[in-house]
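RECORD TYPE: protein structure
NAME: mitogen-activated protein kinase kinase
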Amino acid sequence: MALVRERRQSKLGLRLPEITDRRPRFPLPLPPTINQQVTKSSISTTEAEYETVKVLGHGNGGTVYKVVHKKTSNVFALKVVHADSDPMMRRQIFREMEILRRTDSPYVVKCHEIFEKPDGDIAILMEYMDFGTLESLLKTTGTLSEATLADVARQVLNGLNYLHAHKIIHRDIKPANLLVNKNMQVKIADFGVSKIMCRTLDACNSYVGTCAYMSPERFDPDSHGSNYNGYSGDIWSLGLTMLELYLGHFPFLPAGQKPDWATLMCAICFGEPPSLPQGVSDEFRSFIECCLQKDSTKRWTASQLLSHPFCR
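PREDICTED:
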């Protein structure tokens, strides 16, 4: 037996890599396309072409800047993830890079370029949405009307329909991850916890995303179906997002109350789905009910919701 092992090893000539704290335990992103390749000699030139205007936000081990291309005066958003970020954040940025390279939709934020800086930071140059997020819009201008929400829902559903058709599940749909510009164009962003499915109906039950917008089956798989598909989880999150933009606060909690994990789990898993106040249209009420079915198999798909009277 010892002789057989030696001969097999000599033919293969392969050795499994050792798993260490210094070796990444996540898959590397897809190779860049030709127009995305950046050599070390051109990295400093690329950075020098842009002037930083201001910081748009911090979080998840990185910073987002508003930058201007010096020659053309075109404005972009530059997302920089620092080299010393923890492995989880690095894994998320590699996942986001892979998805951004795959997507090409007017309802998904556009990525123009990805490059690694000399200090190890990773930079993603994206289109700039001048009104920020729907979360910031809610804080500055107040709640949205049904007519505006119908337009928002239609755009987000077009984005989700595109992503789901390409076997991509976002897993973190919420007002903070939906970008908007002055023309009220809405685009899906932040794919750090998204998943590319190998097959359309693969299981997608990892506990990721913002817990407030998680569907009941994500909190309690045993009670709400352990073999659910993740696409319906995006629809649940969309329903809560639409309700929050209409009510002005997170639907499962009274206005001003800060959510905690235990309260959210009890409300989402054991409570009734949040209801709309009197005075809303039957179409909007029906749309929310189609999104917030606790049984994930009864939720409408993005394609079905696009034909709902509220969106039409």
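COMMENT: The radius of gyration is 22 Å.
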